[in-house]
Amino acid sequence: MTLSFLKPQAIMAVAVGVMLTALLSGCDHVDFDRVPPSNVRLSFDTRAEWDRYGTPGALDHKRFILDGNLRVPSDFPWTALTYTGYGGILLVGDVNGAPYAYDLCCPVELRRDIRIEIDPETNEAYCPTCGSRYSVYTNYGSPISGEARKLKRGLRRFNVGPGINGEFMVVSR
């Protein structure tokens, strides 16, 4: 296809517009990898275990923290192969019930002991220290407001899916 009907100035204007759009959209990049990488493995061996400890429905959420003597939830069947990332794991069922997982560490604060919470009224995750808010049920841990939005820092995401060794569901990095 030829654009011979367009004047060279028009072609140049279109090219500049496309390049400018590409450059400006690149500036909107959110850093989802700011939280230091850590081992992650959380296994749900049966459907019953998933129904009890996981997020089998839409807008469900659970926290998993294995840090020294701290174990949340305390009655979860922890094993020597369980790792919960840098600050812990936030497991959610999105608006359709699909499972997603994030590190509980706030990417602004970067401290293991400052963990995001879920606001039950807005269904947003938030940091109790810096006040940043994140969309975990619809926008994959993207920042909504606060320092995280200003600095473009999202929550570190983990993989959730069926295990390769017969586990019903596994959270991994």
Name its key features.
173 residues, alpha+beta, Rieske Iron-sulfur Protein, eight-stranded antiparallel sheet
Question: Could you explain how this protein is built, in words?
Answer:
By secondary structure, the protein is α+β, with helices and mostly antiparallel strands. It has a single domain (31-172), classed as Rieske [2Fe-2S] iron-sulphur domain (Rieske Iron-sulfur Protein). The chain is 18% helix and 28% strand. The chain contains three helices and twelve strands. It has an eight-stranded antiparallel sheet with strand order 3-2-5-6-11-12-1-4. It has a four-stranded antiparallel sheet with strand order 7-8-9-10. 27% of the residues are buried. The model is unreliable at 1-6 and 8-26 (pLDDT under 50).
Radius of gyration: 21 Å
The CATH H-level superfamily is Rieske [2Fe-2S] iron-sulphur domain
Major beta-sheet overview = 8 strands, antiparallel
Total domains, how many?
1
| Shape summary | globular
Oligomer kind: single chain
Helix content: 10-25%
Strand content of the residues, in percent? 25-35%
Compile the SSE list and pairings:
Layout: H1 8-26, E1 40-44, H2 47-53, E2 61-67, E3 70-72, E4 83-84, E5 89-93, E6 99-103, E7 117-119, E8 124-126, E9 133-135, E10 142-145, H3 147-151, E11 157-161, E12 169-172
Antiparallel strand pairs: 1-4, 1-12, 2-3, 2-5, 5-6, 6-11, 7-8, 8-9, 9-10, 11-12
